[in-house]
Amino acid sequence: MKLEQVPTPAYVIDLAKLEENCSILQEVQEKAGCKVLLAQKAYSLYKTYPLISQYLSGTTASGLYEAKLAREEFPGEVHVFAPAFKESDMEELLQISDHIVFNSERQLRKYGQICREAGISVGLRLNPQCSTQGDHVLYDPCAPGSRFGVTQDKIPSDLLDLVDGLHFHTLCEQGADDLETTLKAVEDQFGAYLHQVKWLNMGGGHHITRDDYDVDLLISEILRIRETYNLDVYVEPGEAIALNAGYLATEVLDIVENGIETLVLDASASCHMPDVLEMPYRPPLRDGFEAQEKPYTYRLSSNTCLTGDIIGDYSFEKSIEIGDRLYFEDMAIYSFVKNNTFNGIGLPSLYLMDKEGECSLVKAFGYQDFKERLS
Hints:
The chain is of the alpha/beta class. The protein has 2 domains: 3-11 and 246-331 and 339-372, Beta Barrel (Lyase, Ornithine Decarboxylase, Chain A, domain 1); 33-242, Alpha-Beta Barrel (TIM Barrel). The chain is 30% helix and 23% strand. The chain contains 12 helices and 17 strands. Strands 1, 10, 11, 12, 13, 14, 15, 16 and 17 form a 9-stranded mixed β-sheet that branches. An 8-stranded parallel barrel has the order 2-3-4-5-6-7-8-9, surrounded by 4 helices. Strand 5, helix 5 (105-117) and strand 6 form a beta-alpha-beta unit. The longest helix is centred in the middle third of the chain and has 19 residues, at 176-194. The model has no long low-confidence stretch (mean pLDDT 97).
């Protein structure tokens, strides 16, 4: 079936775009001599892991469950970072991880030695206190009071006896110029250590597959770091892997008038695209424009009881009718990995769309999926 025939609501992954993104990332690997990892927190539709693993070197996980998924479904390295680890989780992680990065000296001293005894490469996350995100504190690991990473004044004196590598993650949907700025701060504060460790992980937030991203600058910075410090470099983008590679298909159930015409959809910001409310941001919509830009303006909302479950105001070339279908774009990332069944709203199905535009069902969800989470 074609996209226009997929039952709504549904996430539809564009395999051609996904592969195009992976090809760009593979080129970065080859030219920069680094390793690119899939950050599963952004995208973890493991049905597509056989495709992605043809291009990337492995995955990064935010804890035990993502690490297990990676080991089971993605051939390649498994890297793990979490702000803190439970002892019961660590027992399993020792069996399936290649790298484990710790967030604090306390966690490093608690678990570092047993990790090394298990053959795992051990790292410590740094906080270079270099904010490049303006006022976007919610997504800034270097914001004042951040719980992420060890600052320069908290580095243990015997650091080099405890770790094999170092890690930083300071970016969110940003360009190579912000990485360049961050690297200067990292080198100024931690350069002496970089000469003596085996690897540096530059974290995620690199929007490498965005049209205006300066890939050449990224490659040159990675090459410079590798040559200056004689170490291996990892980057772990999440969004860049599936950027613009998915849709959320939805249907208009009703139209309500109260000062503005509101389209009630079978998709929800709160349930199906939480970042719309958390960041917040206004998702791109096929054939949708800024409010008042075109003749017909509507507010797009959902079928939940939350008054603020509003996706945004959009205008259209023609009037929208009950039963019409709309397609939100760039919905492969931070969507189904974060969705929920608040209000008993069903989860959208998952589909793959091939290069010919044919869509095949990966999984449909129903009442049992809702019920079993609550038992």
